[in-house]
Task: structure prediction
Amino acid sequence: MQIPADRLTKLGEAIFLRGGADEGAAAQVAEKLVEANLFGHDSHGIGMVPAYVLGLEQGELIPGNELSIEQDRGAFLLLNGNAGFGQVVAKAAMELAIARAQEMGVAVVGLKNSYHIGRVGAWGEMCAAAGFISIHYVNAFSPNSLVAPFGGSDSRFTTNPYCTALPASNGADPIVLDMATSRVAMGKVRVAHNQGVEMMPDALIDHQGNPTNDPGVMFSEPKGALRSMGLHKGYGLAVICEALAGAFTGGGVFGLEHVAPGRIINNMLTVLIDPDAFGHRAAFDAEVDKFTAWVKASPPAPGVGEVMVPGDPERKSKAKRLANGVPIDDTTFEELLAAGEAVGLDRAEAMRIVGN
Result:
């Protein structure tokens, strides 16, 4: 079904309100989740609501908790999300980071112990809108590891996202590279499993380490694993994300310790840089614009409509889905209704909210 973004946001907001969030937090979290859907990243969209509800039920997500400062050393800030809503604490963390970068030209900010921060590109876009280059390294704790190391046959860490955003110039769009270091995000496997379709080649292995296109290997025991993006290259970047987001911030790295059901804790290291730090902002903008035009002028390969740069596919998806609605498969929709019922949102009321 195709559900208008505003109605889908209202559904998420209603569920979070009944789950114990205040109005501001409920609206902010729901808006960011649906924004991910609009941008084509359904893996980080409204389909995450059941996982958040489980976190609320298990006491792993604490809706009233806010960001706190653990260390303030000028350009270096260490922040604690205190297991609060990631969309709330990450926004507050970026506000502090931007203010510090405006003052000092650079900011290095560690955010640890935040509940799931959602689409990392949202925070890169926020920094770019404020005029800064930003680099983000993320790791996560969840009940299950997901990704196999290169050459390995079982999972040892999660999808460890990486993001770099470049500010726009002269009314252009920012360049936003936002990616999992795995071949695909786990949420995309969940979406494929719910839709009953196969995954792309080279994305998964079964529990014996054999390549497979069946997303079901991630939902049955013994579990399979995701493969890293770019073979050893994506795996290497995942190791860097784990070290910088987890070890450097003190948030911790993935290991053998037990992680409770419902826990999705992110740590993120963010570096903000003033593009005018060397006094060459105009030249920086001109060079980026020139290079962007150069690569986009490449004649499209057969079957390709146009050459794009990072951020373009998301903007195209947003325009299309704002016009046509957000596609939600039947399984995901049923999971949303069940999550609402778990916190006291009547199914009939949920259907009224989405207009069905």
Q: What stands out?
A: Residues 86-104 form the longest helix (19 residues).
